[in-house]
Amino acid sequence: MLELDAIEYETGTNPDAAVIWLHGLGADGNDFAGIVPQLGLPSELAIRFIFPHAPVRPITLNQGYLMPGWYDLTSLNIDNEEDVAGINESSNAVRALCQQQESLGITPERIILAGFSQGGAIALHCGLDYPAPLGGIMALSTYLPHCCQLDNKMNRAIDIFMAHGLYDDVLDPQFGDLSRQRLEKSGFSVKWHEYAMPHSVSTEEIQDIRSWLINNLTT
């Protein structure tokens, strides 16, 4: 099984919650590690943030250039042929990270999967089929892979935060909206957000993420 190296950041001693945050294509775990201080989370929340590094692989869309990626991409068309093997491999590796947190005493409902772009696709793929309901899924500027299984009924109540930039010229906003519609038709509830931004993260979005995290992790 693929094993992932990761950056870890704890906001307090003896964390009782975990956020596993996956970067986008061509980046690494450092891409979002610096966002934790910007969130300004309450001091009483002891969270272990985990920022894994995707494996380096050839990306067909980029002429086979080697770069960190959760799976191969042939195009940015929503109907592109998916790298199902790559998606499954990365999803299983992230599942192992969740199970590792469980072995450290963090219950599934205190584990949140987050991801941007490709990382968001893996967060959805892994979280929606996890063997126990997680504390939430944060899917930023991303889409739901066609190969995602949506028949895990015990996960229907999972809290899903989806966001997309209105001026995203990498992943068309309609891809995210179509994914939202597919999830809702399958019985999932989605908190949908749109921002006046490109394929990135905005200050307004960070504030909404902060509120969502506090709401989900404050007991």
Please specify the SSE layout and strand pairing.
Elements: E1 6-10, E2 17-22, H1 30-33, H2 35-39, E3 47-52, E4 56-59, E5 65-68, H3 84-103, E6 111-116, H4 118-128, E7 136-140, E8 160-165, H5 173-185, E9 190-195, H6 203-217
Parallel strand pairs: 2-3, 2-6, 6-7, 7-8, 8-9
Antiparallel strand pairs: 1-3, 4-5
Helix pairs in contact: 3-4
Description:
By secondary structure, the chain is α/β, with parallel strands linked by helices. The chain has a single domain (6-217), classed as Rossmann fold (3-Layer(aba) Sandwich), CATH 3.40.50.1820. Helix content is 31%, strand content 22%. It is built from 6 helices and 9 strands. It has helices at residues 30-33, 35-39, 84-103, 118-128, 173-185, 203-217; strands at 6-10, 17-22, 47-52, 56-59, 65-68, 111-116, 136-140, 160-165, 190-195. Strands 1-3-2-6-7-8-9 form a 7-stranded mixed beta sheet, with helices on both faces. A two-stranded antiparallel sheet has the order 4-5. Helix 4 links the parallel strand 6 and strand 7. Helix 3 (84-103) packs across helix 4. The chain is globular. The N and C termini lie far apart (34 Å).
Tell me the major beta sheet: 7 strands, mixed
Distance between the termini: 34 Å
Uncertain parts: none
Order the strands across the largest sheet as they lie in space.
Answer: 1-3-2-6-7-8-9
What's the shape?
globular
CATH topology name: Rossmann fold
The overall pLDDT, averaged over residues, is 95
How many extended strands? 9
Could you state the oligomeric state of the chains shown? single chain
Overall radius of gyration: 16 Å
Order of helices and strands: EEHHEEEHEHEEHEH
Tell me the CATH architecture. Answer: 3-Layer(aba) Sandwich
